[in-house]
Amino acid sequence: MAFADGTADFRSDTVTRPTPEMRRAMAEAAVGDDVYGEDPTVNALEEESAAAVGKPAAVFVPTGSMGNQLAIGTLTRPGDEALCVEAAHVRNYEVAAAAAVSGVQFRTLPGPGGQMTAEEVKTAIDQSHYHMPRISLLVWENTHNVSGGTVVPYDMMSASSGVARAGGLAVHIDGARIFNAVAATGTPAADFAGLADTIQFCFSKGLGAPVGSVLCGSEEAMAEARYVRKRLGGGMRQVGVVAAPARIALRDRDRIAEDHRVARLLAEGLSDRYPAAVDLARVETNMVIVDGSALPFDVAELVDRFHRRGIIIGTLGPDMIRLVTHRDVNADDVARLLAVLDELERH
Ligand SMILES: Cc1ncc(COP(=O)(O)O)c(C=O)c1O
Q: How many A from CA of 285 to the centre of ligand 1?
């Protein structure tokens, strides 16, 4: 359902607002100093998070970016390279933190849909010589955000991660939306995570909590990650107040399947009207990418006209619209969005 003022915000799954249950949990959370490891709500959340992805330990962090950077800081040395797809969040949208914080640069593979084949990974490793940076880490992003929330299939991840491991690389999953991949495929989170040394996932995206992410991995890796977290200024104190809604989000993670159903309704409604604008095969989770050049509207103007009708949509470029479903939009909001399009078409 839209926000209380009727606004339906389709820009991102990060826009959700805490539910009444989450707000109550925040008010009532048992807290302690988490830097001393004494916040019982954070400790419970870390245990539940580790269990949800089948890892022994977890570290709560304020953001997905910090989760990724702790993994890089833990699994590499300065001067190393990390392998990822060209359009990886960790490479493009974390303000060069890997370089600035850990002294690590990226080697990229084209990676349509976030995919990297075993052959590509092997070639990258084989081409690395003593006078080149040491490739020490493979980073997956699943689901892959800018491809439109596409799932990187388990079998591909398994084959390529196997090649990476054989080549001496560690493996990290940027699983900001791993539970969307789980809902879309039925592959358990622990199976994806089992391919990697570390996985981070976000409570503040499809899971619908206001704040927070978590990095999961071995006890040793998480002990090191805690150290890096403190260095980055991420050691928080009575942070149980934000871990409490994250616990609810994690508990209710199966709800994500509903976002996928709503995204499909939206994609089909758009495709019925403008078949060339939406590639239905790419709508695998909670995102719909719309090719604005296939619409009879100017995209910037469309954004504006929607906005005036209480519907917020986002763009990924001058001609590309990205619509994202989440807990705070539903099938009625999709019907509203489509009705606005029909109205604009008539005028
Ligand atoms: C795939 C992916 N990884 C990491 C992040 C970073 O999360 P945060 O904004 O919490 O730093 C995002 C944010 O949108 C994301 O989409």
A: 16
